[in-house]
């Protein structure tokens, strides 16, 4: 009998799947296989068949060595896995996330996962830092592929006189045939990365037998892994626990002893501790419980979504735009030739003619001009600079100004940052509801603030401030946050922030967005021209 969940750990050498008492294996991921979505889906299908998994499941969590960077690809993969596993919900994340969840789930900590490849994750309060994970062509120093490759390179070097003799030669010939033609045979294998990584255990075994060439390879690998850990530990300003997980560490002290020695010099704040479990254990934890602090690192997908609003979603009747609406943000900053009420009103008219269902606008003057120009609801904001960092309609008085100018709805900063005058988010929302009689959209930056804003009474949650409250601003939209908010909240979720193309908008809709706001890509020709001019040069 199958369980109600599925957990998957997918690496370059193989894929492991568990569901209750069932377990199965599938092929590893290879970048050369073509479409990553199709490759991963087929590997999961094979593992599910191997496990004898046949019944539908509630939740599946997949930790992936090739987690898609493109939100649209993540949406495609989520949909494919939903269908393959007959799942109600699919949680996708990088394998470093499941590695961390399996090894050290609580408190500030660093987890290094070294299997075929290498990746490290530092997690703390508002700290999420990935180190490494660039794949075998550009990174993975100290991992199984790198160790296996170094061992085979040493065998080839010994054969033609470039390097010293090594006991690895005999073992390599047992695996791959005579040294003559060995390189060509390995290159012709269907999965060269996995094939080369399988030689890593032989390198460790030779090092344990005191072969100096193998010993040097292991020492160099330990030094590489220590550098990766040190970079992660420097994220914190104090001693933090560090757990090492993955097949490279199944050798015990053969790897841990030189790693410990090197870390003492590079990162004395690193406190090595044994891991609680491995990446598959982490996938089980994230499939069977709430993601918690890992939620922002996951992409969540649901079956049979009635896009854009699930049945359990509560939509306030005062929300002035329908599900599936495109909202256009008409704003121009001082210094932009389009700054001012008249240009923004004409821009709003063009957006209306193109099919916009509502306009987002800033400031009483622009809002009043737009309301007189177009017969569309206006989502009003009032950007006011303040030292606390909250600047989108930071006070009730700012909300009053935009509603009196004609706004049908007010958007406010919904993050956890301090608000001017000591007014709470809940109090501001309550006063807008009771005294102004309009619904409130909370612009948030993460899942935690989104849940808090909804609890404080916000009618709609928007991802507007994701990427803008600390750290570098990402290039693309945060579709994963849309998915996470849709999964958690019972109100409409609006996708906003860096949506620049039809593909971005489609990804947001597929993630469950009630509506999507697009601004710069439609209404800021100066910014668009700047980007294109840079491309020309």
Explain what this protein looks like in three dimensions.
With 537 residues, the protein is α/β, with parallel strands linked by helices. The chain folds into three domains: 5-105 and 280-302, Nucleotidyltransferase, domain 5; 111-274, Nucleotidyltransferase, domain 5 (2-Layer Sandwich), CATH 3.30.420.40; 325-536, Aldolase class I (TIM Barrel). 41% of the residues lie in helices and 19% in strands. It has helices at 36-51, 71-85, 95-103, 144-160, 168-176, 182-187, 192-197, 200-208, 212-233, 253-266, 279-288, 341-354, 364-373, 396-404, 425-436, 447-455, 479-488, 502-510, 520-523, 525-536; strands at residues 5-10, 14-19, 22-27, 57-64, 87-94, 109-114, 118-124, 127-132, 240-245, 270-273, 299-302, 325-330, 358-362, 378-381, 409-413, 440-443, 460-462, 493-496, 515-518. The strands form three sheets. Strands 12-13-14-15-16-17-18-19 form an eight-stranded parallel beta barrel, surrounded by seven helices. It has a six-stranded mixed β-sheet with strand order 3-2-1-4-5-11, with helices on both faces. Strands 8-7-6-9-10 form a five-stranded mixed β-sheet, sandwiched between helices. Helix 3 packs across helix 11 (279-288) and helix 9 crosses helix 10 (253-266). The model is unreliable at 305-311 (pLDDT under 50). Pfam families: BcrAD_BadFG, NanE. Keywords: Carbohydrate metabolism, Isomerase. One of its GO terms (biological process) is N-acetylmannosamine catabolic process. Residues 33-254 form the ATPase BadF/BadG/BcrA/BcrD type domain. GO terms for molecular function: N-acylglucosamine-6-phosphate 2-epimerase activity.
